[in-house]
Amino acid sequence: MTFAPVKYKLMNCGTGRLFEDEGWTLADPQGDSPALVRAVYEKKEFELRKDLDGFYKFANWLPIKRTLLHSHVPVTYKSKGLAEHLGLDNLYITFSGYFPRIGAQMATCSFKETEAYSVCARLPEDNDRILVVSSAGNTARAFAQVCSDNNIPLLLTIPYDNINALWFKKPLNDCVRIIAAPAGCDYFDAIVLGDKVCQSPRFMAEGGAKNIARRDGMGTTLLSAVEVTGRIPDAYFQAIGSGTGTIAVWENNLRLIEDRRFGKHRMRLYPSQNAPFTIMYDSWKAHSRQLVPLSAEEARAQAAEIKAKVLSNRKPPYSLAGGLFDAMNDAGGDMFKVTNRELDEWKERFQRLEGIDIYSAASVAVASLAQAVQTKAVQKDELIMLNITGGGESLTKEHHDVVYAKPDMVIDTYLPAEEIISKVETLFR
Asked: Model-level pTM?
């Protein structure tokens, strides 16, 4: 459905320069150093759109041109079981996934749907280029579902080893095609494939963290929490692969401060990684804007070892202006690392205490919250937001039969871009 687009300008997070969005602007054309661009919305008040359904109730702070079918929102509720176990008085869980008991109905069980419904709605209806999304799993599933439901041409690039993440309640529409980097490759290899395909003008890069629609879509998790609590939380917990979700909630925190009705403070940020893949944790602990060195070989080995496979981005938006380093410096907080053993323990405890299965990445966030309680980084009476970025897959598979997608092609990343493009173009004839 089309509607009157929200009015906003773009701001270079490094220089503060304001300029117009040309429709799919991912960076400041006048910028001379790496920087994210941020949407600066004309409407400064946080208000829900009562005329729009699902996810699009947050449309006032989304850079979109239309709405799409079958969207759902993150659901925030006050924890009882986990809160009591940890001795916390005001723990609020923002749950993205399938948990009908609390009203959560995300078909792909992941908060990556918030990205997909925002990014794809930023596309004009008459767009004739093919969107390219690179993913380690959950993002691919979310974009595939949204594009399939709304007949939007999409090329996914994924690591072959993560193909089991692509399950759906029904077969995908032919407008969605999948190529995979060979077995043994990681998320970065999938990005390489996508970058090579996007050298063709027929394809367009989704943009990852650089896409304001992706970040502002993910930032709706904080809006969900504030809708329920009535104020900005004191502390925020999330597991990170790229850190984009944490950047996104920080940006919405700044917007809410401008509103002035929900508090004037920055909530402390507590992102976490799955050890041994801890490139951002290690960089932050060194208080280094630059990422610590990590070779491709080390990254692949570490990615193979962790259970939360989606947390394995070795080129995250950490160092550039407006990235995670700046967010953490501005808001305060700390980073945590969580072992596979801790992940497993808290995954089981969360299901027992809150009544729903969660993904390994979300379990990392729960374990990090437990660490923060133990080290007294948070106080029992503080308002704490725990972002459970995915859950309910086991319940979904109890309630529905699912089908698994297969890659249309497996393509070596070392092939020249021209050869890869030639292969991929045959999928969209």
From this structure: 0.96
